[in-house]
C-alpha cells in the first residue's frame, strides 16, 4: 500500500498519481518537500585568538549545506559577524626597555591589589551591616496548595479535553502479522464505537481487537460493520457504562475555526493537540489499497497534529462536539518507515460519517452516493464524462458522453477526484445542479443522486 494513513496498523498515506480514467476520480497533489539548510561556522585560529580574519571574510561566516531530507524544518540561522575577544582586535605593544616593562607590570600589580582590597573592605562592611537582616524566603519551604488552581475557562482546549477524553478509546489490533493501534469514538453507553475501516481491517482469522477506555478499563471488541469506500467502521465493545461523545455538524464549519484532535498517536493514548480548520472540501485518499478511487474523501484539512495512531479519533470544535473523524496525513517522501505530522491532517466530515455510522450500526453495511457516470481527465479543468450509466441519475438528467462537468451546485470541479468528493459529500436522494461544458456550450442540469451498496 502506498498511501499513508495515521492508523498505526499501516503506514500514513502519500498522494498517488492520478489514473487516466476512473469511475470515482484520483487523488489530489500534495506540496513538494523543502530542503533544509544547516550552517557550518568558520572558527578563529585557536593558536592566535587575536588574529584578524582574511580580508573580506567575516569571523564565523556561515556556510550552509543542503540537507537531503525533504520537508524538514529550516535550520538555525547563521550567526552574524562577531568581534574578536574583549570587544576589539587587540595589538600587543612592543616593549623597548626592561624598566618600562617593569613599570607596566607594577601598575598592573597595584591595580590587582586595589581590587582585592576593595573587595575585602566591601565584604567586611556588608557583613557588619547585614547582621540584623530578615531571614530568607524559599519556595521549597512553602506549603503546596491542596489542588491545582488552574480552572478551565469556557471554550478553552483544557475544557474541551475534560469533556471529550472520556469518550475516546484506544483500539489495539493483534494479528498473526503483528500488532497496531488506532483510536475510536464511543457513540453509545453500551459500547458501540465509531472508527476508521483501516484501523480494524486486515485482521483476518485469529486476530484480536481490544478497546482501552479512558477510565482504564479494557474490553474485547467485535466488528459490527465496515465501509472501505468511506473508510469508516463501527465496532462493539463488551462493556457498559461508558460515555458517548456529542456529535456536531460540519456543513457550516468555517475555515480558520479552532479545533482539537484527540487520539493515540504512536500508542500514546489520550493525547490532545489543537489547531484550526485549514481548508474544507479537500479531495484526498485514505485507507484504500494502492490508493484506489474507492477511498476518495471530501475531507476537512487541519493543522492540529495528527500522527499514526490518531486514525478513528475525533476532531472536535471548541464546544466539544465531534466535527470530523481523523483519517489521513500527508507524508512527504517515500523512504520513511513511519511518517509523522507536518501540519497537513485530514478528517472525514461528521455530516457524512453520521449517516454512514448509522447504517453500519443498524445494518452492518452502508450505501454510497452516486451520479452514474464514468469519468476521466480532460484537457481542461473539470471531470470528463467517459460513459453514462444507463438509467442512472446522470442519464435521466441529460448528461452526455463527452460532457465536461465543471460544477456541482456552487462547488468548482477541477478534476475527477473533485467530482467524486462532491458527490459523496451528499446523501442518496439529494438533488444537485450540475454545470456542464460541451459541444453546445455551457448548460446546467438537475440530478437526483442515488445510493448503491
What is the rounded Rg?
Answer: 33 Å
Secondary-structure arrangement, i.e. CATH architecture of the domain at 368-452 = Roll
Order of helices and strands: EEEHHEEEHEEEEEEEEEHEEEHEEHEEE
Structural class: alpha+beta
Mean pLDDT: 77
Strand content: 25-35%
What is the name of the CATH class of the domain at 368-452?
A: Mainly Beta
Sheet with the most strands, sense and barrel status:
7 strands, antiparallel
Distance between the termini: 24 Å
State the share of residues found in helices, binned by percent: 10-25%
What fold name goes in the CATH topology slot of the domain at 368-452? Pdz3 Domain
Summed up:
This protein has helices spanning 98-129, 157-164, 197-200, 350-363, 393-397, 416-424; strands at 21-22, 37-38, 65-66, 168-175, 178-186, 192-195, 208-212, 218-227, 232-237, 258-263, 271-285, 296-302, 314-316, 322-329, 345-349, 368-370, 373-376, 383-388, 404-408, 411-412, 431-438, 441-448, 450-452.
Describe the structure.
Residues 1-87, 134-155 are annotated as: Disordered. It comes from Saccharopolyspora hordei. This is Putative serine protease PepD. Belongs to the peptidase S1C family. By secondary structure, this protein is α+β, with helices and mostly antiparallel strands. Strands 1, 17, 18, 19, 20, 21 and 22 form a seven-stranded antiparallel sheet that branches. The chain has a six-stranded antiparallel beta barrel with strand order 4-5-6-9-8-7. It contains six helices and 23 strands.
